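Handout, section B. The chain below has 100 residues.
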Amino acid sequence: MTNPSSVRLPVLVNLQTSERFTIENQSITLGRDPDCQLVLPEDGFASANHCRIFWDQGRLWLEDLMSSNGTSLNEQLITRPSQLSPGDVIKVGHTRFRIE
């Protein structure tokens, strides 16, 4: 089993602002709530706790947290946890991120 600390950590790149966020924790939450690890205060279409990205058995996954507008992976709305790969594009509200 691969441990996240033994591989190059994935990075989320905000496609609008080019900001980079390294995924260093076992799980991160994205949304407007200030308690999220990746806060999207300017995106009125993102829910307070919109989605999470998490490690499971050495793989990186994306899960929608019952957000109002849904979470998309590569332009497809997800309905269950979906595995992430480098180059994937995640849409949270109106904000788009690429996994590197």
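Note. The first strand starts at residue 11 and ends at 14. Compare this with the example in section A.
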